[in-house]
Amino acid sequence: MNIKPLSYETLPEAISLVDNIFPYQKDTMYENARIAFSASLDQDNPSSRSLLEQMQITEANYWVAIDENSGKVVGTTGLYTYAEDEAEAYWLGYTCVDPDCRGQGIGAKLVDFAIEKARSNDKKFLRLYTSNVPNQAVAQILYEKRGLLIIGEEQIQGSKFKKIYRELKL
Ligand SMILES: CC(C)(COP(=O)(O)OP(=O)(O)OC[C@H]1O[C@@H](n2cnc3c(N)ncnc32)[C@H](O)[C@@H]1OP(=O)(O)O)[C@@H](O)C(=O)NCCC(=O)NCCS
Question: Which positions make up the signal peptide (predicted)?
């Protein structure tokens, strides 16, 4: 498995994977992978910048995990900054692995890769939000092991689930 920056070539597969794993996000503006991924590839373009700004994002970089044999995108991850804490924090986002390829260490490699990337810059924190929906349970184990500890929780409106905020001091 190789981790590579998201490119126009891998964009359709990356969007399809994320939309499949987080289906409720594609109907939102704030969490729409098609918008975030596409705009991240063209951040100097004013219309891309404007789309990212509408998501409160000031900088966004995404990576894909590619299976060496099939050449397919089997995972994604990303680091982005929000306007409100861009001086001190990166946010980890869109971390997921194709359900057919789970349990082989790909998710761990993607998160470790992103942590290393975040450490190579001068931010103080790596933050993320996740939730206690059952299909994100393994992610909690993965994050906890890496010291991405819970710093806040809030009820998701109209849902029985909670949004969970995590943070790692870099
Ligand atoms: C979370 C996710 C990315 C993990 O991907 P993966 O490739 O299966 O994970 P790995 O095989 O690298 O395993 C990660 C860790 O969890 C542990 N783990 C994996 N599957 C597990 C399971 N079913 N039960 C308990 N622990 C498990 C592994 O032992 C591993 O431990 P390590 O960190 O010490 O190496 C994947 O399950 C996924 O896409 N989930 C849905 C999307 C999601 O929740 N994303 C995060 C949203 S914030």
Answer: none
